[in-house]
Design goal:
147 residues, Immunoglobulin-like, four-stranded antiparallel sheet, three-stranded antiparallel sheet, 7 strands, elongated, Small_HSP, HSP20-like_chaperone, A-crystallin/Hsp20_dom, Hsp20/alpha crystallin family protein
């Protein structure tokens, strides 16, 4: 098996304008443009305590009514679909700005989940979903005395 090393930068052989490739490389590799092309989903932290599982979803700028949380068998889905329209009329023309925010995250729940004890709270831009465990899944801690 042979390994072939490709050059990381192309050599610009244009004698008239040697900076053309550099300008286009910088334009298309700019993080300003690539950030808008990437689909954004909020970051999630999942933690397990003795009593429950906690799902923390960072979603600032939303309201409690924007969230839709569905549980279907062993799958919990957290989604948002928000549409803001603002119309500003100036002089002889009208300017409209649309703002759409939507995402959906789904997580598989283990068999130890108590489906009657699922709660959600949204404070300071973080959605916290608490999924309780069944009583038989909660391990009782006790101190074992050595004799």
């Amino acid at each position: 098996m042979a390994l072939i090393k490709f050059p990381t930068k192309t050599v610009n052989s244009d004698v008239v304008n040697p900076y053309v490739n550099n300008i286009f490389d910088n334009l298309f590799n700019d993080s300003f443009i690539t950030d808008r092309l990437v689909t954004r989903v909020p970051a999630v932290n999942i933690a397990e305590t003795e009593q429950a599982f906690k799902i923390e979803l960072a979603a600032p700028g939303l309201q409690k009514s924007d969230f839709k949380i569905n549980v279907d068998k062993n799958l919990i889905s957290i989604g948002v679909e928000k549409k803001d329209e603002q119309a500003v009329e100036e002089k002889l023309y009208s300017k409209r700005e649309f703002s759409y925010t939507s995402f959906s995250r789904s997580f598989t729940l283990p068999e130890t989940v108590d489906y009657n004890s699922i709660e959600a709270a949204y404070t300071d831009g973080v959605l916290i979903v608490s999924v309780g465990k069944k009583e038989d899944a909660i391990v009782a801690k006790r101190l074992i005395e050595v004799r």
